[in-house]
Write a structure and sequence with these properties.
The chain has helices at residues 3-11, 26-37, 49-61, 76-90, 113-141, 162-182, 203-206, 209-217, 231-238, and strands at 17-21, 41-46, 66-70, 95-98, 144-149, 187-194, 249-252. By secondary structure, it is α/β, with parallel strands linked by helices. The protein has a 7-stranded parallel beta sheet, with helices on both faces. Helix 2 links the parallel strand 1 (17-21) and strand 2 (41-46). The longest helix has 29 residues, at 113-141. The structure holds NADP nicotinamide-adenine-dinucleotide phosphate (NAP). NADP nicotinamide-adenine-dinucleotide phosphate binds next to helix 2.
Amino acid sequence: MTSPAYLSGLFSLDDRVAVVTGGSSGIGRGIAEALARAGASVVVVARGKEALEATTAQLTSLGCRAAWVSADLGSRAGVRAAADEIVKEFGEPDILVNCAGINLRPPMSELTEHDWDLTLAVNLQAPHLLSQRFAPGMAERGFGRIIHVSSQQAHRAFAHSGAYGVSKGALESLARSQAEEWSPYGVTCNTLVPGFVLTPLNARLSSDPDTVRALAARTFIGRNGLPEDFAGAAVFLASRSSAYITGQSLFIDGGFSSH
Ligand SMILES: NC(=O)c1ccc[n+]([C@@H]2O[C@H](COP(=O)([O-])OP(=O)(O)OC[C@H]3O[C@@H](n4cnc5c(N)ncnc54)[C@H](OP(=O)(O)O)[C@@H]3O)[C@@H](O)[C@H]2O)c1
């Protein structure tokens, strides 16, 4: 077999349908582009229509198949409505990337019930409900990939982790429970763990050059993350080649977590 055919057998996402929540910005946008360029038809999900339109327009201009669904994943009803719209685009998904996330960062003593509920709803409940909705179909078809996006704060307290750290710790536990449930049917469930990535989520921290420099110095590589750093790992975990990898957390952090 020639090398391109061999690589394609391992990593091509041709004929796959992928959903990327939070796919209109930052890390999710990087992942959406990677999956689409690897061959998947991609549905990006977020609230803001302008960014969704811009993302799908860019993907289409690259020759990819892409569509968007505007939905608020902060409530059960919003997630259900999103799922109903998602399947109207390219049918049932083979790949689900749960990347939409919020980090409100109030100090623990000032964390309101609203902050707590909203953080857990977007960062944890939505990934659970979307997985529960789509994984049984993946299992029936014998192939599925669920990829969550967690955080260093699942493993260590850092920059007012508050409810955010709690939600991300639980998200990695969710991946393990899902892996236990669905892996026997060809549906793997894994988590990508970013370091510090320069995205709108971190606008406040990123606006301080000393903080940005200090965080870069905590990596082995010597720089902070970029959305494109997630491309290879996302394609790998979405592809056939990762069939025997499940329930794992893969750190994409330049060594931040090992330093
Ligand atoms: N950046 C980092 O350093 C870093 C580090 C560790 C982990 N992470 C994680 O990586 C993921 C992506 O973060 P990012 O840095 O790329 O952030 P980002 O650029 O702010 O993107 C967040 C995405 O989530 C969507 N979103 C937020 N709330 C939503 C809601 N209620 N319903 C639907 N969509 C919603 C946003 O779109 P709308 O606002 O239009 O809805 C946007 O597409 C998050 O889960 C985050 O926790 C990031």
